[in-house]
Design a protein that fits this description.
Elements (H helix, E strand, L loop, with lengths): L3 H29 L3 H29 L6 H34 L11 H8 L4
Length: 127
Amino acid sequence: MIDMNWVLVIIGETMVIWGAICNLIASIGLLRFPNFYVRLHALTVGTIWGAFVPLIGVGLIAAGSEFLGDYRWFMAGAAFVTATLLLFLAPVGSHAIARAAHKSKAAIVYPKVVDKLEEDREKGEIR
């Protein structure tokens, strides 16, 4: 008979390991990618796959750990709530950083094919 708690712990540990691998890949991308915007993409991938997935894994590990008693549900719930917040706030934050960098011209977009944001700014449609 397979113990469900054991299955939750194994799946959670696998997710934590997968998150560590994704963080390693994102850090390599951060070092190797050519410009700010592509590096920002690597950071966002690292945030989602390197933080969201392990948090879900930690929640599963906590839910499957009987030695924590009733507190395991608090730990699992906190991990799931944190992961959900991270899932929604990480893309918003990276978009705000990219827009601020583009607006202040702190990061040059090179090479670029089309820049609709700059075209709209030149027309006076946005600030």
